[in-house]
Write a structure and sequence with these properties.
alpha+beta, 22% strand, rod-shaped, 3-stranded antiparallel beta sheet, single chain, 144 residues, 48% helix, 3 helices, 6 strands
Length: 144
């Protein structure tokens, strides 16, 4: 699951970079005070830093959910969790379709949270796949 691209961040980064670069060049060409030039260099650098941060977040905020007949493996976006279907007692998708919770008895929980705004259909498909795998692990049949 991937978050939507941070378009607003890229737009702001582009504006900061362009404005900073133009004003930096003008200040150097016109011989303005060094502090003004340093300020415009800082604006330009902030734009570049924001663009790099937005690109990094796109690459590193992906969440991978691997399901097989034995269990699940959730990794990426700072997570690494595994579990077997035999230990899952219930699965529930929130009304907003932003989080799928796998219950392990009365206390244990594993949350699969959609990164960013993400795609709700992706969570719906994941919930259906989890339901089928839970049913299969318990020997239930679904005649659909």
């Amino acid at each position: 699951m991937s978050p939507e691209p941070p378009i607003r961040g890229f737009i702001i980064a582009g504006i900061l970079s362009i404005v900073g670069a133009v004003l930096m060049i003008v200040s150097i060409a016109k011989g303005w005070h060094e502090l003004v030039t340093i300020l415009f260099i800082a604006v330009f650098a902030c734009g570049i830093a924001l663009a790099v941060t937005a690109a990094w977040s796109m690459a590193h905020m992906k969440l991978y959910v691997d399901l097989d007949d034995e269990g699940y493996h959730i990794h990426g976006a700072g997570q690494d969790r595994r579990g077997s279907w035999s230990k899952v007692t219930k699965a529930a998708l929130t009304e907003s379709r932003s989080r799928l919770t796998l219950y392990h008895g009365r206390v244990g929980r594993t949350h699969i949270v959609r990164p960013g705004m993400g795609d709700p259909q992706e969570m719906d498909d994941l919930a259906v796949d989890v339901a089928h795998r839970l049913d299969k692990s318990r020997g239930y049949r679904q005649d659909i």
